Amino acid sequence: MIQIDTFEGVEATVQNFKFKFLTVTILAAIIALFSGCETPSTPNSNTASGVDPNKVAATVNGKEIKMEEVERALKQQAQGQESKLSPLELASARLTILENLIQQEVMFQRAEKEGSVPKDEDVTAEFNKTKQQSGMTQEQFEKVMQESGQTEASARETIRKSLAIKNLIDKVTAKIEPPKDSEVEAFYNGNKAAFVKKKGVKLAAIVIDPANNGEGDTTTDEQSAVLKGNEIIKQLQTGADFATVAREKSEDPQSKLQGGDLGYISEEEMKQTFPQQVTATLMNPNFKVGQILPTPMQGKFYIFKLQERSDKDEDVTLDTPGVRQQVTDQLINSRKQLLSQSYTVIAMNEAKIVNNLAQNVVDNPNELSGARPAQPANANTANTNTAANANTANANTANANTANANAKPANTTANTANAKPANATGNANK
What we know:
Blueprint: H1 20-33, E1 56-60, E2 63-66, H2 67-78, H3 87-113, H4 120-134, H5 138-147, H6 152-173, H7 181-190, E3 196-197, E4 200-208, H8 222-237, H9 242-249, E5 261-266, H10 267-273, H11 276-283, E6 292-297, E7 300-310, E8 314-315, H12 323-350, E9 353-355, H13 356-363, H14 381-392, H15 400-407, H16 411-418, H17 421-426
Antiparallel strand pairs: 1-2, 1-9, 3-8, 4-5, 4-7, 6-7
Helix pairs in contact: 2-3, 3-6, 4-6, 6-15, 12-16
């Protein structure tokens, strides 16, 4: 007998359950999406730093990139800590950010020549998808844009460039052919130790979102979401097919197309993303395959179905379902990544680039200091170091949506292309 609970009594606590990892990731992605857009800064936002926002930082085939864009990305990455950085650290961060902006502009101009710029309706669809996947209300979403100094128009322009570059890379890498069976087998034989199915579970989920996501959304608050969740659970109790119900009623635009299938998730991955209680329940031997687990988290209601559980790590072979395709996909995507990187190198070499910011450093090497400004006695050193790292080690996040498109052929396959064999095959049942 399948044990199924309802959502009664949990509506008041739904906001206390946070999918912390996903929330942080979503916020970072949105801020990265809205960085580097060509919109006016707030008054005195750049002049206070001693930088002229209208100064031309670089040109790409005559197209200007203003210091305004560089400073905006710097402020977003430093998260208000830029005043604690030394001139040397600031100069290094600005150069790295500008390098990404230059590469973005080079690739976008290539995309324009190749006819890869998306239509307005495609940009609109991607913008709406970004808002929906953020899990934010309209008010929260607009607040994030405002805090990052963006408007809807500038956000759409960033999306347009990102999609254009992705379309270009997809076009360039389409010539890659699937690997031969001998190549797949050679890869597997050379990495046998890495092919392990980790202890974990295979899940499916039906998601109910209490947020008002626009016209046609029937669950616009917690009460309506709870009612819908309990109705779905009653359907499942009477024998309704989970995959069918997921396709019809789940409000997650990605998993619903696969009948709610979330794939295989290792216990380690669950501990990083799921609430502790949910992970413990799913891994408990007393919780049987086929059982349903309703739970609120990240401001939404999830109805999980346990499809499979592995209580220990297991070696897998090329005959294990999904493994051969995983290896094939990894080889294809790794080759696509190398091709896209090579194409970008050629595009950069052929472009006429003038980096005024770099030239200024070369011309005035003695104007930079390596010392940080003096801090109050109770200053948080850890925060200072974090801010410094945000501007140096993580400077590439300024243009995540575009720079990644250059390095990876598509977001849906980037993880496979860059994953170690252990990761690629550990999720063999996805």
